[in-house]
From TrEMBL:
Keywords: DNA damage, DNA repair, DNA replication, DNA-binding, DNA-directed DNA polymerase, Exonuclease, Hydrolase, Nuclease, Nucleotidyltransferase, Transferase. In addition to polymerase activity, this DNA polymerase exhibits 3'-5' and 5'-3' exonuclease activity. The gene is polA. This is DNA polymerase I. The keyword Transmembrane does not apply. One of its GO terms (biological process) is DNA-templated DNA replication. One of its GO terms (molecular function) is DNA binding.
DNA sequence: ACGCTATCGTAC
DNA sequence: GACGTACGATAGCGTT
């Protein structure tokens, strides 16, 4: 034996790994604890990477009692039984070790320590190197000239230690560890030791007399107290030594030469890691690229999948018949652009069952493809059929591409795998197909960049590769469907999905497709005005400060304000002093510069975020702006808007209003804007059932005024504007779980006054507090909250012992049903409104949704009738215990309707 | 040149 | 530390 042998103390590493994450355990996608699996292999892989061992074994304890139990029945008796979720991970670790072809050792009647000791003693006598990976101090007795140990260090890694380090750490040499531990004992193994002798005393005794025998031979030299302890516990001392003495003669172990590492199926191990949710380990094992390259080889017509390029007209016809018969299929469009409002189809892939898919190229380098028109007709026919279900990943994208291609009549039912995955767990952060395949199917897809070289397009990809990629997309989408469908049912989300989210997907696609008109010219003019104004303010600031600097840089601003102008910092950020609005407002009281900075910032924000950006978003084909609504963008169920974000266009001040005014209706049309009055507070009243809060909605009184009257103890008619402002802040604050601290800051009042207001609020609305308490305690039990329509959000922090995290989780638990249910209501209204408009034969179109507001574009002669329809539909979208009120306006720009 | 984080600010 | 949900701009830093 010449190679260095690495011996891993299996259970020591498993325990350590499990408890390392005990405050924040890791879970695999099946929801089982995977801390031990992750920690175990993270350590193992890091050792592999650092030392590249050729020879290694993982050693486990036997499942049967050992000679130590026979000798001393109390052995390890005090040890707490391992938690069930730790125990369950052992077979998984064994499975992965097996897949990695790592030698595993265990033997009945002996412990891992004994096996390790047997090899170590051979290493010592034969002079070959050996390393023990463990956290167990018993094993330190084995360290010597050719045997070292790796123990956890402070940084979380493992450090190699030799005899000197052991002596340093314990104060005694490795060969004295045994006698040392016989005196000290071992709590975890219930080894008694000598009562009254601790680490300090033991080190002292061992140093003076060398060994246990040495001590007992020289008892007369000790203090009377120590003499007595040692006399009395003599038996325990020697029994202890016997227990912790390791066997070095375990028989029938494989010779060390056989404990070698070899090649193994990396792909298989990566899959196991992915199954356990350890994607970082999977990544570490083989770079994603390598694995994907391997994947490419066999996925074209591998064991698991058959992918066919469709090039013949009669095959297309046969496929159509099969589709109409199957009634459910995955269909995915390849295009030449990520922007569906610019993209042209390059090919279509279709899957009818898992493992089989077709790619129908329309444009493909070096291939004679089918006539585009024939394919278009075929797709149009199957998607027109209301009995069919179209399964897709991010359906809105394909829907819009196909609509632009001329497929306008899509009546097939929709099943979007991306939305389904989001509905099942909105706390995940990615819902892309590649990520879903890995997370849910443990399948690594071919990535776009692997098939399409930079600078090229999909149509440049040769047929074979194009088919492998495109058909896989359809195949995986189908498999995702098979995975997701039953889970939606199990989790009681199938109805929300079918009746709310999927009908909404179609409505959103239509809204995005319609777009909204923007007067780019007027914004450009405004931009020039702003540029001038900014220049002037900048100059003023520079003059006052005596030098030029970048006003947009918070870092430079800190220097100017807090160093050069010696202003007092108000609050800190992670990296320095804050310069946000509230700080600058305070500083403005003693210095003229902050006021100017505020002015500059406001205008700069307006210009860079809206005025300069929006005209660039005008689509060259349609001349309109087409935002994208993210149906999977939020954890509460709200929509999000991007490219551009039309949900945060300024509204409050005059400068911002100018931007809204640049949004204009088509010729002959007007905008209609309808918004729910205080929908979140109405939902809050409904969910809490608080009579007083509900009364405001029933009577249609101003909720903020009512709250002010109640907490200040005055008549509603006597409420001052200031009192109403305070009440408004509290009304919203309660929904968000605002603290007295925040409220006092917001209102510039003392913290005790703020606390007093909140108390008064709860006293007047008693069921609000009950609702909050009940919601928190239910969330603690179940781990999640649900909205009115059943949308679910996991709240992992709800069991945290960290106070900040715990209260953060409580705020989420309370806010999500409120915000999420409001979102549900608006979504429902959108679907019903879309249907009503269609049934009424109106040409009016929904264009935008801004959380509690809908914006429509109506031909002038429809405005009156549609306005009525909108109000009615929105107010009756769902039935709550309180009435919902909607206010409506029409105008010739967005600025005019708010 | 690109990607990431921090900070800031807009909306509801 | 301290109010929920988003998107996006700029600065500044690190990596390619």
């Amino acid at each position: 034996m010449s190679k260095k042998l690495y011996l891993v103390d299996g259970y020591a590493l498993i325990y350590r790994s499990y408890f390392a994450f005990i405050r924040k355990p890791l879970f695999n996608p099946q929801g089982r604890n995977s801390s031990a699996v992750f920690g175990f292999f993270r350590t193992l892989l890091s050792i592999m990477q650092q030392y590249s061992p050729e020879s290694l074994a993982v050693v486990f304890d036997s499942m049967t009692p050992t000679f130590r139990h026979v000798k001393y029945p109390a052995y390890k008796a005090t040890r707490e039984k391992a938690p069930e979720d730790l125990h369950a991970q052992v077979p998984v670790i064994e499975e992965i070790l097996k897949a990695m072809k790592f030698p595993q050792l265990r033997q009945d009647g002996v412990e891992a320590d004994d096996i390790i000791a047997t090899y170590a003693s051979r290493a010592a006598s034969e002079g070959w190197p050996c390393v023990i990976i463990t956290g167990d101090k018993d094993l330190m007795q084995l360290v010597g000239k050719s045997v070292s140990a790796m123990i956890p260090d402070k940084s979380g890694g493992y450090a190699e230690v030799g005899p000197e380090e052991v002596s340093e750490k314990f104060g005694v040499a490795p060969e004295q560890i045994l006698d040392y531990l016989s005196l000290v004992g071992d709590q975890s193994d219930n080894v008694p030791g000598v009562k009254g002798i601790g680490p300090k005393g033991a080190v002292d005794l061992i140093r003076r007399f060398g060994s246990l025998e040495g001590i007992y031979e020289n008892l007369d030299q000790l203090s009377p107290g120590q003499q007595e302890k040692l006399q009395q516990e003599r038996e325990n001392a020697f029994l202890s030594r016997e227990l912790i003495t390791l066997k070095t003669d375990v028989q029938e172990l494989p010779p060390p030469e056989e404990l070698v590492l070899g090649d193994y199926d990396k792909e298989q191990v990566i899959r196991l890691f992915l199954r356990e949710g350890a994607s970082s380990l999977a990544e570490q094992l083989g770079t994603a690229k390598e694995v994907r390259a391997e994947k490419k080889e066999d996925s074209y017509s591998g064991e698991n999948a058959e992918y066919i390029s469709l090039l013949a007209a009669d095959e297309l016809d046969r496929l159509k018949k099969a589709l109409l018969e199957a009634k459910l299929f995955a269909l995915d469009v390849e295009t030449d652009s990520l922007d569906p409002m610019k993209a042209r189809p390059v090919g279509v892939s279709i899957a009818l069952e898992a493992g089989q898919a077709w790619y129908i190229p329309l444009i493909c380098e070096g291939t004679e493809t089918l006539e585009e028109e024939g394919v278009r007709r075929m797709i149009a026919e199957i998607l027109k059929n209301p009995d069919c279900t179209w399964v897709g990943q991010n359906l809105k994208y394909d829907y819009k591409v196909l609509k632009r291609w001329g497929i306008e009549d899509i009546q097939a039912k929709l099943f979007d795998t991306m939305v389904a995955a989001w509905l099942l767990d909105s706390t995940a952060n990615t819902f892309g197909m590649d990520a879903l395949a890995e997370r849910l199917l443990q399948y690594r897809t071919i990535h776009f960049d692997d098939v399409v070289p930079k600078g090229k397009e999909f149509k440049d990809v040769p047929l074979k590769e194009a088919t492998a990629y495109a058909a896989e997309d359809a195949d995986i989408t189908f498999r995702l469907y098979e995975y997701l469908k039953p889970r939606l049912e199990e989790e009681d989300l199938a109805r929300t999905f079918r009746d709310l989210e999927m009908p909404l997907t179609r409505v959103l696609a239509e809204m995005e497709y319609a777009g909204i008109g923007l007067d780019g010219k007027s914004l450009e003019r405004y931009g020039k005005e702003l540029a001038k104004a900014l220049d002037g303010i900048q100059k003023e600031i520079w003059d006052l400060c005596g030098r030029e600097f970048n006003i947009n840089s918070t870092k430079q601003l800190q220097e100017i304000l807090f160093e050069e102008r010696k202003l007092n910092p108000v609050k800190k950020t992670k990296t320095g002093y804050s310069t946000d609005t509230s700080v600058l407002e305070q500083l403005a009281e003693e210095d003229p510069v902050p006021e100017l900075i505020l002015k500059h910032r406001g205008l700069a924000k307006l210009k860079s975020t809206y005025v300069d950006t929006l005209p660039k978003e005008i689509n060259p084909h349609t001349g309109r702006i087409h935002t994208s609504f993210q149906q999977t963008g939020t954890a509460t169920g709200r929509l999000a808007s991007k490219n551009p974000n039309l949900q945060n266009i300024p509204v409050r001040d005059e400068a911002g209003r100018a931007i809204r005014s640049a949004f204009i209706p088509r010729k002959g049309c007007r905008f209609i804007s309808a918004d729910y009055a205080q929908i979140e507070l109405a939902v809050f009243a409904h969910l809490s059932g608080d009579e007083t809060l509900s009364r405001a909605f029933e009577k249609g009184t101003d909720i903020h005024r009512q709250t002010a009257a109640l907490i200040f103890g005055v008549d509603e008619a006597e409420v001052s504007p200031d009192q109403r402002r305070v009440a408004k802040t509290i009304n919203f604050g309660v929904i968000y779980g605002m603290s007295p601290f925040r409220l006092s800051n917001e209102l510039r009042i003392s913290r005790s006054d703020a606390a007093h207001f909140i108390e008064a609020y709860f006293a007047q609305y008693p069921k609000v507090r009950e609702f909050i308490d009940a919601t928190v305690s239910e969330t603690e039990k179940s781990g999640y909250v649900r909205t009115l329509m059943g949308h679910r959000r996991f709240v992992p922090g709800i069991t945290s012992r960290n106070r900040t995290e715990k209260s953060g989780a409580e705020r989420i638990a309370v806010n999500t049903p409120v915000q999420g249910s409001a979102a549900d209501i608006v979504k429902t209204a959108m679907i019903k409104l879309d249907m009503a408009l269609m049934e009424g034969g109106y040409r009016t179109k929904l264009l935008l949704q801004v959380h509690d507001e809908l914006i429509l574009e109506a031909p002038e002669d429809e405005v009156v009738r549609v306005s009525e329809l909108v109000v009615h539909t929105m107010q009756t979208a769902v039935e709550l215990s309180v009435p919902l009120k909607v206010s409506i306006e029409d105008g010739d720009s967005w600025g005019a309707v708010h």
